Structure formats: structure tokens, C-alpha cells
Amino acid sequence: MAQDIALNRDSDSKEDSKSKAKDKTVKTVPLYKLFSFADPLDNLLMFLGTVGAIGNGVSIPLTILMFGNMINAFGGTENSNVVDEVSKVSLKFVYFAVGTFLLSLLQLTCWMVTGERQATRIRGLYLKTILRQDVTFFDKETRTGEVVGRMSGDTVLIQDAMGEKVGQFLQFIATFIGSFAVAFIKGWLLTVVMLSCIPPLALVGAVLGQVISKASSRGQEAYSIAATVAEQTIGSIRTVASFTGEKQAIANYNQSLTKAYKAGVQGPLASGLGFGALYFVFTCSYGLATWFGAKMIIEKGYTGGEVITVIVAVLNGSMSLGQASPSLSAFAAGQAAAFKMFETIKRKPEIDAYDTTGRQLDDIRGDIELREVCFSYPTRPDELIFNGFSLSIPSGTTTALVGESGSGKSTVVGLIERFYDPQAGEVLIDSINLKEFKLKWIRQKIGLVSQEPVLFTCSIKENIAYGKDGATDEEIRAAAELANAAKFIDKLPLGLDTMVGEHGAQLSGGQKQRVAIARAILKDPRILLLDEATSALDAESEKIVQEALDRIMINRTTVIVAHRLSTIRNADSIAVIHQGKIVERGSHAELTKDPNGAYRQLIRLQEIKGSEKNAANDTDKIESIVHSGRQSSQRSSIQSISQRSSGVGSSGCNSFSESHGVPATVGFLEPSGGRPQAPPSTVSSPPEVPLYRLAYLNKPEIPFLLIGTIAAVGSGVILPILALFISKMISIFYEPVDELHKDSKHWALLFVALGVVSFVMPPCRFYLFGIAGGKLIKRIRKMCFEKVVHMEVSWFDEAEHSSGAIGARLSSDAAAVRALVGDALGLLVQNIATAVAGLVIAFDASWQLALIILALAPLLALNGYVQLKVLKGFSADAKKLYEEASQVANDALGSIRTVASFCAEKKVMKSYEEKCEGPIRTGIRRGIISGISYGVSFFMLYAVYACSFYAGARLVQDGKATMLDVFRVFFALNLAAVGISQSGSLVPDSSNSKSAAASVFAILDRKSQIDPSDDSGLTLEEVKGEIEFKHVSFKYPTRPDVQIFRDLCLTIHNGKTVALVGESGSGKSTVISLLQRFYDPDLGNITLDGTEIQRMQVKWLRQQMGLVSQEPVLFNDTIRANIAYGKGGDATEAEIIAAAELANAHNFTCSLQEGYDTIVGERGIQLSGGQKQRVAIARAIVKNPKILLLDEATSALDAESEKVVQDALDCVMVDRTTIVVAHRLSTIKGADLIAVVKNGVIAEKGKHEALLNKGVL
């Protein structure tokens, strides 16, 4: 129940946040505000980084200037002097290399380091602020996951916006301004003409970005429909299996996949067209420059070098403007992320743990009084827990609070600890209002031991030390002995230094509780609050823990909250609380005198349960001897309890949420639907998959792949051919005027022709590989989904097969596999073509120079790679580094009450800061290393230029090459290296794809153990409905140490109604699951009309049964479709209406505006509980089943709906074999047989009256 409420709240708040998000635009912080936490050192770093970035940005235009001089040195001088002229310019390149090395080092290192430092500071401040918030803040405004998400995710975005991205932005802007300055100085007229190419370039770039994101989002959107189908199907797999709806689910999924495929193919086509257009404009602008540049040389006396300088400067400047835009989006993301964090950092709580004002006395006596207190939880302001509640507890006495769940016992503890303040009335300690004390001081006087002790992820010693600042080893040791913990600690190999694991998972419940008590003892509190401190323990642990508690309660004011009355007999005073009022008070002896008193009633209730519990405990003891792994079973039983009752340990508002029904006994709880809780699983990675299996899946697309390969080769040779043209363009600028006039027109047209080719090739390549990839994804998803839907139900109980996990695998793994085949293959072919073409052109022009440059080419490729890595940013790695620190935060926030009650905020911060030290050092080191590699990459670039031109000049002087050859070799290899290194960054992570492929094949290769698609097996001509369970033993596969049935026998005659009753977790719903063959029994067998059901065809067997469960699962479709689902979707209108009438659903359906076409919403959310339930009954009726299975079909309904639904059920049950699982005994009075399930067997059976007389019911 607690879980349901929490879940509902989650979903509500998600809905809220969605609607709110629509209402208001995203709030952001001004950019300069991001830097408001910088210290003087950060300011210095930012200043140096800015200087470096601007210097680095300006270096590129200056290089272009020198490049023009270099061309003039080659073209404008006689061959004899060429080496002298060129070596002067080469030397300048070397100086430049050194300068840019230093500047780029400064730029990247300073910005990365300051970003790291400031982000860490923000993280720390955020955690510190969160820790000082009152408990209300955690109940209402935030969840642990959200805070940790902010700390790890949002700070990365903020760091991104104030780290190296700022440096990059400044660098590109400096390049932009510098390039245009150079272009205008060198030749303003040509620059103005060249500017005409910028609008189309910018336009194509912008449209390309838009189109790609639109196409990809359209693809995502189309797939998201398929993903919803998958999520719905897997999330309600029991319903799907029960109604044999697998075929329908697969058909729906395939339909959505086809849509997704169509949308998915548009994406690559759009990208291809965009890239084609970009190449087209780019190449044509060279054509324009060739023609107009020649004109300028003839008419205005420009030199060839100047023309080239202008062309390169304009193209460079416009490109750098484009490169600056990713920084802008990073700034926007950072500003938005900072808003919520900075808001929280500014928030001051009403109950402030860091508040230093307030009274401090020498000591307190420990008198507690609650006077006329009115209180409701902030999350549920309409529900008054206390209205004028008063209670006084004299110092040094022990008072026990008892009462049913939700009566307000734990709330008293929350108020004394001042987790909450009452809305009216006051809480007094020693007659002083609690609000007047200094919060930290008063909390140090109060010790809390709660039902689920919260331990932190550190050693036992550190956990105990939370009780007192600066505790010595002796004190810790003494506290452990007092708490009966020393014995078990000494047995552990590491003793006190044993790590307890997350939430203390390495210790058993009793051990955890004793560590928590030792922690409370170390605090030496005047007031001790025990909130069900022993309720989660088995008998033996309880005895030991109780002894420890008895020892420390002496001479302290003690408040005990208890469910088990046996633990509080010796209390000085017992107060019985009922609905927020004290109805009785006195000692155990006094209260037991009144036979009709509230206390006696509680005792009576517990005695009934006690006898059951003893029986359960006896069998547990036998079990624990059989399973030598007693610890594990004990630990899991603790887990199951903590899943049920989140007491004060988790959130005050949940501690009252299981007020319905008698609290369940200790042991495993079976959540609704009889579904076992999956243990945290350890997922082993599936084995590697050979590539030929993938290729085989892609076999039908071979023609597409072949033509695509040809297009990829075409795309690949464009850059080398462009290099050939550019070098020719340079050489014609130094021809005599009449030749120049003729050649410039000729080459300008050739540039345009190349542009046309480059417009056609990329779209072909993208589109063809897109089709092949898209079909592969579709095929893989379809095959996987078919496989998954037919898996046996127990497969879905494992955590790694939840609907979310499988959905993620279907969506991301399939897409990652595509990367391996479609995109990566195309790029690979293209890169090989580029490399081969570049080499051929270079070696053809001058093999000596080609060899020299080739030796240096790896350095150029490295430069391209480093530049891209810097562009992408390093922030993703930062997330991984801070995982340990996030764990500390996660721990503390998940147990904020424990942190608050032990005033451990400073301690948590200290531990967090320690965990951050490593990552900060790593971050700074990474900043320095990245800076150096960035600097080195620039240094290499200029050094390679200097080297290759000097070598070229030597060859020209010796007559072994011409100027045209030198530039041809230089451009061919340079452009090839750049092309390869840049497209290299587009290659998706292949290691990722390989593991994705492995996970896909792991699903495809697994055989379902109970496969509904398997048509073999018996079917009976006519079903009577005789069911027999013969000596059935069963354990859920996910909980092999908990026996659900031991040798269970049960016969159900045809046409009769049998009701199963028993406490939660006894296995009532399991009977239904076994009958439907969701699971198979471990021993024994189940027969239908004398035939074993395991020999029958699964699908046929399930079609004979109609299931109505406690929380009916409806699909997000019309009422008509939901009812027709019972008959595989092909019921006639008449059948649907007849079923609805029988189920009492026809009238309310007709009263809806859309009638039977009303969409019921996700999981039927648009209908009320009773309406949903009646639609579910109609769905079961349409099937016309021989056997009807009702699993608590009315338990979730209010009285009125229940009556209507019960009437519907009574009509339907006539002449059918019916099995009813029920909690409410009123609903099963009329059953032909009632069977009581207990301890894995049928303990009693008979008619209602007979069992009543025996006193069983």
C-alpha cells in the first residue's frame, strides 16, 4: 500500500511537472551569474584563459597571411632564389608553432581547470544546502534521485557552460573577426564578392541542422509509439499471456515499426541532401573566386598570393562562426540547469539545522510534553493526524505508544525530533518550547533507533562514530559492547573495519539494528526514541536486541513505538492511540483489567496472529537449518518488510499509509498479482557475437549496400579532386594574362561541375545505407519483440527484464547495431576512397615530396582528431569520476532523517569533500593534459607546414618538381588527412555496438521454457472444468529460498466456485498463476479434466480461462477494443455489447460522450476503479471461458462499486468453474468450498458456516 501511494505520488508529480513545463517557459540564469562562485584564483585562471583563447583565435588569420606570402614566394620568384625566400617564411611558421602552443595550452587548461573548480564548489554548496533543509522539503519538493541527478547531471551541464566551451567561443569569435580583417585589408573588392557565398553557406548549415534534428525527432517520435506498445505489452505481460494477446501485440508493434522505418529513412536522406548542398555551395564559391580573382589580377593588379589569402580567410571566417554555435547551445543548457540549483542554494528552511541561534542549557532533565498539538503532514494537508493531541512523559520514565497502523504513533517521534513543527499547539522539553532550543544542540540530546536502521556505506566503526563527534576507539568499543554487537563484530574478519555495504546490506537485520543502537548509545542521549526498533527481526535477534535496549533505557526518558505488545510489558506507562487521540493510558497490568478496552482488543488481535506466526516461525526454523545460508534468507525477509512498511526511516508521510487491514506478519509479502519481488540482479555481459551473423541478418539488402558502396566511393574522391583543382587554381594565377583569362573561366566551370557531382553523391550514399540500416533495425526489433512476448512469465520477474529495461534494449540496442552495419560501413568505404585518391594524386605529382609529407601525415591526422575531441568537450567523463561522491550524497539524502537526528550534516559534507578530492585532482590533471595535447597539435600543424614547404622549395630549386606539383601534393594529402580525421569522429562507438549486438542475440538465442507460440501439445474436444492440484511444491525462481507450496493438494469440481483465503504472501494468487502456466510447479502436477496441463498446448489452455485481477490492466485504446481483446480482437459488436451488459458495464459506457469509442487512457486511467473492473470483467466474459479466475477482483473498490461489480460477477459465475481469491470474507460467503491456504498447504476447507463454527475464519 505504501508503495502504491508513493508510486501514485510519483506519477502525479510527473504529470504535474509535465503540465507545468508546458505552462511556463524554461527559466534560466544570466550567463555571468554562473561565475558567481568564483574565487580570486578562478578569476586569474579565467583572465589567462581569455588571453589564450583570443590569441589562439587570432593566430589562424595570421597563418593565412603567411600562407599567401608562401605562395608568392613560390610563384613570384625565380627558381634559383626560391629556397631563400621560402625558408624565411618557413622560419616564421616555426615561431608561430611555438606561440600557438603556449596560447592554446593556456586557453584549454585555464578554462578546464576553473570550470572543474567552480562546478565542484557549486556541487558542494548544493549538497550543503540540501542537507540543511527540513524533512518537509524532502517529502514535498524533491526526491533523492532528483537531487543526485542534479548533482551529477546538471552540474556537468553547468561546468560545460563555464569551462572549455567559453574558451572555444572566444577563440572562434576572434578567428571570425581576424579572418575578415585580413580579407578586407588584402583585397576588399574580392572579399565583398566572396561574402555573397556566406548567406547560402549559413542558410544551408542552419537548414541542415534543423532538418536533421527534425528528421531524427520524427524518427524518435514514430518509434516512441512502437516503444509504448512494447512497454505496455511487457508491463502487463500477465494480462497479455492470460488473454493470449501475443499475436495482437506483435501486429501492433510491427505496424508502428513500419511507420518508424519510413520516418527513419527520411533522416539519412535529409542529412545527405544537406551535406550535398553544403559541398555544392563550397565548391561553387571556389569557382566564383577563381573567375573573379583572375579578373582582379588582370584589372586591379592583385597578386596570386593575395587572392588565395582572401579566399581562404573568407571561408575560414565563415566556418569559425558556424563552429561557435555549439558553445551557444551549451551556454543555454548550463543557464537552464543552474536555475533550479541556484534557487535551492538560496532556499532557507523553516527548521534550519545550521541555525546557530537558540537556547542551550547545561543539560536537560528529559520531561516531554505535547500540548494541544494539531498536525497534518505537509504532503497531505487535508488529513489531520492530530487535532488537539496532548501527552506528557515525565523524565526518566518509559512510555510506550501502541495503536493500529496510521494512528499517529510515529508522528509523535517525528515531532519530538523536530522533523516537523505542529501547525498549532506546542512540543515542550523541560517546559521549554522545542522551537526555542538551538536545533543541533537539542537533537544531540535525543537518540533515535528506528524500525529500519539506516547505515551509511562505510565501515562499522565509522557508522557507530556518527553518534558523537571525535569519538575515541575505546568509546566506540564500549558502545558496541553495550549494544550486544561486540560479539558478532569480533567474528568478522576485519572486525570494526568491516564495510557494511550500501544501506548496510552486508549485515543481517539484527546486526544492523545493534550497530544502530551502538550509534545511539555513543550519543549518550537524555531522551531515547525507539520506533519499532525490533519489529523487523526474527525471534532470536529480537531477544538479543531487546536485552541491549533494556540496558540503555535505564535513567533515560524513553518513548517506544511498538506493534508487538510483548515488547512493552515492562513500560512505566502505555498509551493507546486511535485516530490521533489517546483513548487509554496506564501500565500493562492496569490496561489488561478492562476486557473491552482498546488495549485488550489489540492484544486479542495479536494473539490470533501470534498463533499463526508461531507456526510460521517453526517452519522457518526448519528451513533455516535446511538452508545453511540462514543469513541470506533472513536478509531477504528484512528486505521484503522494508518494501512494505516505510516507517519513519523513509518518509513521514508513508508511515501511515498502510492503515488498511491488519499488518501482515513477518515473512515474504507477495505484492498484488502474486508477483515475486526481484532481487537486485547482477547482469553478466552476454558473449561477443561474430559479425557474419549480423551481416546475415542484413542479407536481403545486399543490392542497396552495393549501390551505396559505389556512391560512398564517389563521395570519398570529391575532396582529393578538390585539392587537385585548388592547386591548379593557384598555378594559373601566375600565368600570362591571355592564358589566365581563358583558363580561369575553364576552371571556374570545372569547379561548378564538381559541385554538381558532390551534390548528388552524399544523398545517394546516406539514403542507400539508411535503407539498409533502417530495415535491419526493423527486422531486429521485430524478431526480438516476438521472442520476448513469448518468454515464460518468470523471465520477466528478473530485474533486467523489466518493461523499462527491455524497452531500452529494443530501442537503443537495435539502433546501436545499425551503426555497426549502416553508418559505419558507409564511412569506412568513403574514407578508404579518400585516402587512396589522395595518395594517387600526390604520388603522381611528386613522389619524393609525397613521401616526406606522408611521413608527417599522422601528425596532421592527430591534429584533426584532438581538435574534434576538444570541440566535443570532456564533460561526459566528469560524470563517471564523481560517481563515488554521488554515492555519499545518495546515501545521506536517502536517510535524511538519520542524518538530521545525529546532526551529521558536517560529517556527510566532510566525507563528500574527501570523495571529491580525487576527481578534482583528476579533472585538473585532465585539464593540463588536454591543454598540452591541444597545444602540441597546433605546434605539429605549423611545424608540418614549415617542413613540407621547405622540402618542396628544395625540389623546385633542383628542378625535380614544379610549383603546381608542390601545391598538388600538399593539398591532396592535407585535405585527405583532414577529411578522414573529421569523419572519424562521426564513426559511432563500435565497442558499444558490439555489446548491443551481443545483447540482441542473447534475446534471439534464448528459448522460452513455456512458449505460447508453440503449437504442439494436446487440446481437448470439450472442457468440463475439473481441476486438480496433486502434491504441488513450488518456489518462485527469483526467490529460491522461500517455499510457497509444500505438497499442496486441492480438487475443484466442474461448475463449482472455490474460494481461496489466507494471509498475504500465503500463495493464493500463486494458485492462479500456476493454473495459467505462468510458472510450472517444481514437484507434483496440475490436471484439467484428468489431463496434465503441461502436456497441453499453452495457448489453447489459456483460452479456456478468463482472468479478472485486483488491478485490471486495460490498454490505451477504446473500451470496445479492450473488451474485444478477450477474443483476440475479433469479437462482433453484438458479442461486445452482450458481454458489457452481463458485466454491468453497458450503462456507464453508453453514458460516456464517445460511448464504446471512449479511449480509456494509459492503464485505464480515464475510468474509475469500478468502471475499469467492469470492463475487465466484460473482457473475460467475451472469451466465454469454461474456467473463471477472480484474483481479489473487488478488493480495490469502494463499497458502492463493489456491490455493482459483485452483482456482475455473480451473473457470470453461473455454470462455470470459478476460483476466487479474496481478502474480504464477505465476498465469498456463497462459495461452494472455501480453502484456507497456510504455510504452503491447504490448512482447512469447507463451507462458510462450517469454517465459522470451527473458528477458522
From TrEMBL:
The keyword Nucleotide-binding applies. SMART domains: AAA (SM00382). The chain crosses the membrane at residues 44-73, 93-113, 169-185, 191-212, 702-727, 747-773, 847-866, 931-953. Residues 1-21, 626-657 are annotated as: Disordered. Its main location: membrane. Residues 47-333, 706-992 form the ABC transmembrane type-1 domain. Gene3D superfamilies: ABC transporter type 1, transmembrane domain, P-loop containing nucleotide triphosphate hydrolases. GO terms for cellular component: plasma membrane. Residues 628-652 have a biased composition (Low complexity). It comes from Glycine max (Soybean). Belongs to the ABC transporter superfamily. ABCB family. Multidrug resistance exporter (TC 3.A.1.201) subfamily. Keywords: ATP-binding, Glycoprotein, Membrane, Nucleotide-binding, Repeat, Transmembrane, Transmembrane helix, Transport. This is Uncharacterized protein. Signal peptide: none annotated.
